[in-house]
Amino acid sequence: MRNLFKRTMSKKKWAEAEAESKLWVFNCECGHEFSIWDVGGMRYKARGNPVKVVRCPKCGVKKGRKLRKKEMSE
Length: 74
Description:
This protein is 24% helix and 26% strand. It is of the alpha+beta class and 74 residues long. A hairpin with a 5-residue loop joins strand 1 and strand 2 (33-35).
């Protein structure tokens, strides 16, 4: 899906989307924090804290996890 957006967005907008997507993170019980970008997703100009089923890249546990946007100070 990201490839479709990459082909249709300007380089500037694509860079903005990538940077913002990397701020949207999941936290795992194993202590690992990973972004939606790390697991192949993208979130740009979005709001809310949805629950997504994702696999932790560190421990491999797949379950529903709350997605939250990191503050710039974190």
